[in-house]
Every structure is written in structure tokens, then in C-alpha cells.
Amino acid sequence: QAPLADIDPQIAEVLDQELGRQRSTLEMIASENFVPRAVLQAQGSVLTNKYAEGYPGKRYYGGCEYVDVAENLALDRAKSLFGAEYANVQSHSGASANAAVMHALARQGDKMLGLSLAHGGHLTHGMKINFSGRLYDVASYEVDPDTYRIDMDKVRERALEHRPEVIVAGWSAYPRQLDFQAFRDIADEVGAKLWVDMAHFAGLVAAGLHPNPVPFADVVSSTVHKTIGGPRSGFILGKEEYAKKLNSAVFPGQQGGPLMHVIAAKAVAFKLAASAEFKARQERTVRGAQILAERLLADDVANAGATVLTGGTDVHLVLVDLRNSALDGQQAEDLLHEVGITVNRNAVPFDPRPPMVTSGLRIGTPALATRGFGDAEFTEVADVIAEALKPGADVETLSARVKKLSDDFPLYEDLEQY
Ligand code: PLP
Q1: Residue of 25, 223, 342, 358 with catalytic role
Q2: Does pTM top 0.90 for this prediction?
Q3: What is the DSSP string of 5-37?
Q4: 232 catalytic residue (yes or no)
Q5: Among residues 49, 140, 279, 319, which is most buried (max CB within 10 A)?
């Protein structure tokens, strides 16, 4: 059979160019990572051909004897990694996992309480035009205007006012750990179910560097592609008592056939996440974010009007507040792009600018830690970012420093093409 380059040279070129981009720039989008070759192989395999509606041993299609093995491995590994009684690994994405969780825990019109999108929550935690905001009666909690941290007394107040059926704890842009015990206590006080969305920090949990929400929550959802560094997809963990409801919420509630090639790749990612190498990588990830935060808190950056929200980080990302800087979020993102560092602009809490512009940056270290960066390299990249955020940044010199770092840490060397 003819190779992709012959059948579809335009798409082959896209893949080639994207590989080149990933190799030659520094990836600091907090939700991204580089999957290992083993994950690419599982995901790009013949398992993509297989329909397997249902669950292992109870499928609606024949010929599932091998994909059942893959799904059972993914389930066993997910449960063992996070100490969970129950797992479901069929969700196509984090958002579809979250839709299934709400489908299982609530009825249309029920009340839900989550972190406001503008303060670091996710679309699926109650944004108006998302399924969550359309199907459920949503109220939000916010971060404290002085500390920029979630104040559990305020969460309790909001819960007592709103009386939700479901409370969601989790975030897309928040640099600190959550107090799961306090969330549990509030949920119990108001008779709500506690759902934790650990999409961002799941890798840190697997490595023992972040409290594990599983013992506290009724249900935990996650993605596999952020700190874990597996295939783009989602999964759900929970107490055994929710097994039937969650399974039926995923299939047939939300989805048809599971993506068996992706499920096999999840199994690979969960296997790797139990290794000492993975733990060391997560340690470099968190340490890298701390190095970045320390550098961006220095006087020269503060004099340029930039600061780090909450004064540091406990996780894999740093939130930069540019409200007093000459640069807005869009300009800062563009400037770093010119230098060769990819980040995303991000609204800061109480942001005066519109969501397409913003006054902040979200900068993450997981992908560079996967690339092999340690303290020395994170110190260098932190300094490049600090210099870029100061007035009159010398883009050419900074680009040369970025090029040296990316040359020193080659990516996908054993991949002949894409
Ligand atoms: N939950 C959280 C907290 C997230 O940050 C994200 C992604 O950004 C998701 C869910 C959704 O994941 P996906 O993009 O795979 O749908």
C-alpha cells in the first residue's frame, strides 16, 4: 500500500511541518506534553479498525477478544495507579468524561457548583453555552481578590446558598493544590456529591507529588494527555457504588464505539506512569515551574509590571499577571512565539480585558520536563521569558538562546518522519 506522502502529500507535509515545529520550539502550554513513541505506535495501530460497543466481556460486536485484553489492562492500571475501586477508560476526551460524570450524578436542571471559568475553572464546570451551563443550574465560586487562592469558607457559603446536587473541584488555570478534605466536608454538609476533575494535575497525583482526590471524591475525571503525557483522551475513576451509573452514562449515554487504539495507548501511558522515571519527570516538572515562578517574581520583572499570581506555584504551571505591564496577554504570547516559546494567553481573575486578549499568561513545564529539562535548563528558559517580558526585549538574542536549548534536547530522534 502506498505511503501517506504518496497518497496525500498535503497532509504529509502538515505532519512533517508540525514535527519540525515541535522539535524547534519550546513547548510551554500547560496542558500539552510529548507522548512517547510507544503511545504513538499503539494509537497509530490497526486497533483503530475495531468496533467494540459495550465493555470487556459484554460487547455488542464480535471479534473483541484482543481489544478486551487492552481495555482490561488500561482499567487495571488506572485503578492501581490512583488506588480507585472503579475505572472507565472509554471517554474520548476530558470534556466527554465530564459530560458523562454529570449525566451519572445529576438530572437535567439539577444544581451544580464549580470554579468560575474566569477564575481558572473549565468550560465543562458550568460555562453558560457549554453543556454544563445549558443542562444544569450552575453557580460558581471564585478566588479571593487578595490572595488569588480558593477560600474554602467562601466555597462553603456558596454551597449553603445554592444547595447544589454536585460540587466540582478542579481547574484549568490555578497554581495551587486543592483542599479535598474541605471540599468533602462541604459536600457532606449540603448533601452534594463531590466530583474532582484532576485533568491538569493527574500526573502529579500518580507520582505522589499532589494529594490524591480519589479517597475524598465520589467521582474523579481526568484527561490522559496533560501531565500524564499519554494519548489525547479522558478517563473516570470512582467508588464502586457509581460503577453502573457511570458505565451507562459513558456508553450508551454519551458515546457509541470506544476508540480502541486510544484505549490501548492509555494502557501504555498508565504503565509508564507507574515507573520511577515518570516520578522523576514529574519532580522536574514541578521544580521547573517553581524555578520559573521565582525568576518572574524578581525585581526586574516586577518593574516591568508583570507578576506571578499567588506568589508562586505548587504544580506544573505559573500564572503571570500582566495587568500592570505594557504588554497584554495577546502581545506577550506573540512575543514569546517570536522568540520560539509557545505559551497561551490566559485571563487572570478580575481581568479587565476581553477573553480573546486577556491580561495574563499560563506557562507550563510538563512538555519540557518530558523533553529532559532539569534545573539548569529551566533556569535558562525562565530567564529568557523574564527578559522577553521586559521593555525593549532583544528578540534575536533570546531566539538564539531558545535555539540552543532545543538543539541540546532533540525530540523524537528515533522517528524518521512524523
Ligand atoms: N477538565 C479540565 C480541568 C481541563 O483543563 C480540560 C482541558 O483543558 C478538560 C477537562 C477537557 O479536556 P479535553 O480538551 O480533552 O476535552
Answers
A1: 223
A2: yes
A3: HHH-HHHHHHHHHHHHHHHHSEE--TT-----H
A4: yes
A5: 319
